[in-house]
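dumping the sequnces here before i forget
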Amino acid sequence: MEEAVELTPEELELPPCKYEYLDHPADVQIHAWGDSLREAFEQAAVALYGYMTEIDKVDITGRQEIEADGHDIESLLYNFLDECLYVFSAEEFFVARKVVVTEFDKEAFSIKATLYGEEFSLEKHPQGTEVKAITYASMQVYDSGQQHELFVIIDI
Amino acid sequence: MVVRQYNEELKYLERLSPQCWRIKKGFQPNMNVEGIFYVNDHLEKLMFEELRNSCRPGSIGGFLPGMKQIANVAALPGIVGKSVGLPDVHSGYGFAIGNMAAFDMDNPKAVVSPGGVGFDINCGVRLLRTNLTEADVLPIKEQLAQSMFDHIPVGVGSKGIIPMTARDLEEALEMGMDWSLREGYIWAEDKEHCEEYGRMAQADPATVSMRAKKRGLPQLGTLGAGNHYAEIQVVDEIYDKWAASKMGIEEKGQVCVMIHSGSRGFGHQVATDALVAMEKAMKRDDIDTNDRQLACARIHSKEGQDYLKSMSAAANFAWVNRSSMTFLSRQAFAKQFQLSPDDLDMHVIYDVSHNIAKIEQHWVDGKLRTLLVHRKGSTRAFPPHHPLIPVDYQLTGQPVLIGGTMGTCSYVLTGTEQGMMETFGSTCHGAGRALSRAKSRRNLDYTDVLIKLQEQGISIRVASPKLVMEEAPESYKNVTDVVDTCHAAGISKKCIKLRPIAVIKG
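..and the predicted 3d for all of it:
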């Protein structure tokens, strides 16, 4: 059972939607962007959950902390999204409505994030499509000047 | 990726026969061997369109077309023969979907690549027969479909109903279908009609991460989502009466059950873990690939061996998974017809893997060689008299199960000698996608798709309405085109055509 947690109004505030699902024959390509790369990462994680259920049916009643690291920016993104998929797929079965990156080190390639959402329940959450895994295929991360966006293909 | 103008790209492609194209070296950098792919007129257009769409130098986003992916695979160290695209080939991740490649076990530099197996390790198809006819089933078709849907957990987030502890899982990973047999879920004969007899001996659960086991445990005995399904089908056409009768298929209208599923979250995590581990090993061993998703390791390195052991555990997981759903399907039929599964003659015709790497012996340039054959979205299709196929099919060749898509036909083919020579005993695996998932969601309407299925007399039970659009027949290549191309090219032979009367999906 999840513990009841106190959440501040700020934590309950919902972010704007800055992601889209692009055409790919077999799978789905997530395109996420933001005012910073940090925001693009947060958006990509929400996009991941958004494919597995209808995200507006998810309430924020709890939180989960996750951590990931990598050896370059692509592997950081890969491992971060894999971590997000894992909390959904195993014990906890947590689905997030909102993701906040709390620490983002672009030199050491490490990331910490808080996921806000609740336990996935077949009674409450419509079933979307299952995401099997994150892929490196045609992965692109842009982070310079005004351009902060990323493309990642998820395996369906 | 090399980006040239479309007309420039075409210079690297040459038609060999009406069903076959050659991809010359230079199409992608560092190609060790040539590529080859099989298409008919219709499928050919789709392939070339995919290539044309990607020839936009300087644009961001986008993805690699299937032809480029076939060529990237041809650039992997130790590849033997050709990188082969089967008729259902389309862009995937790393390898194309519908791509097979063999690597020389005796070449110390040859590699194994998790991207050549896919995330859904040992995803495959199983076909059960019954002694019922369509007329027996039609009056209670809706109840039967509902009963199958109630018995088999489907869709994202569903959990298995067969009781499993962490210890059971360890044993299942090691024993595959021997575990299912010991626990009483299957019949002894089921194993006989399954590739590898439902158990890969190299499996070592100790090489599998805790994460994979945690993802796998709740999902054992679940169908999953995406293109996975359980269908009640009837025999629509018999092309090879003699081979069909060896499979226990005697007449049109006979009822069968097809199950298409894989190793669920367990296999997905095993593949992910291997990909991450191999990325590191590639730096150490100085291996370079054209695509990061083609991460690979030398077959005899620790990473390579660990992957083969954990992949085998995932393969065992998938067989136990399909076996659990075989058990549930038999129960559903038995309850509806008040007859035991035995009396309904619900035998396994065959069970194929279409995402796997296997050690096999093949003739290359007149010499018998031991190869690691990767099949991703490709099915093994061994010819008559091959020692690795069961005694019942020694004279017909291996049954090859080609699953259609929701609402379309499925096929049973048999392996041929020509396929053994040309494609390392491999053929297609299904329809292969034509329309992207996002496009299907935009262009198709949920209710239209359902009405159309209803008009065709197909009952459907599905967990996710969105999936109905993504998986609509319009989203796929025509499976008949795919199968006819395999038949015309001689790499496998048509035996039976099946059409669905009820579909159960995630």
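Chain B touches chain A through 55 residues (CB under 8 Å).
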